[in-house]
Amino acid sequence: PPWVALAVRPKPGVWEYVRVNVDELAVEQLTVSQYLSFKEMLVYGRDIDPYVLELDLEPFNASFPFLTRPSSIGNGVQFLNRHLSSRLFRDPESMQ
């Protein structure tokens, strides 16, 4: 079926992936892997090997601070410096 895949950014730092059937105008939610697979199929003209190595680095982000305000975009180094210095002054032992 004729599909169109879209990456929608409802707010800064948040992405959602959808697939639209052009004939029926039906919308389906896609995972990141499905979206990337769809894009690769368009480029290569065929389905790629399903046994591609995928690494999930999400567990490393559990304790890492992240920007929540759109006005902070582009100020990541400043944000990280403030976070690490406040953490150092609160608990110097945490930095060892």
Q: Features of this protein?
A:
96 residues; alpha+beta; three-stranded antiparallel β-sheet; 3 strands; 23% strand; elongated
Give average pLDDT, whole number: 80
Order of helices and strands: EEEHH
Give the CA-based shape: elongated
Structural class: alpha+beta
DSSP strand content: 15-25%
Sheet with most strands: strand arrangement = 1-2-3
Q: What proportion of the residues is helical, as a percent range?
A: 25-40%
Instruction: Outline the biggest β-sheet.
Output: 3 strands, antiparallel
Radius of gyration: 20 Å
Number of strands: 3
Regions with pLDDT < 50 over 5+ consecutive residues?
A: none
Count of helical stretches: 2
Q: Give the terminus-to-terminus CA distance.
A: 56 Å
Describe this structure in words.
With 96 residues, this protein is of the alpha+beta class. It contains two helices and three strands; from the N terminus they run E-E-E-H-H. It has a three-stranded antiparallel β-sheet, with helices on one face. Strand 2 and strand 3 form a beta hairpin. The longest helix is centred in the C-terminal third of the chain and has 15 residues, at 76-90.
Note the topology.
Layout: E1 3-11, E2 14-21, E3 26-30, H1 32-44, H2 76-90
Antiparallel strand pairs: 1-2, 2-3
Nutshell version of this structure?
The chain is of the alpha+beta class and 96 residues long. The protein has helices spanning 32-44, 76-90; strands at 3-11, 14-21, 26-30.
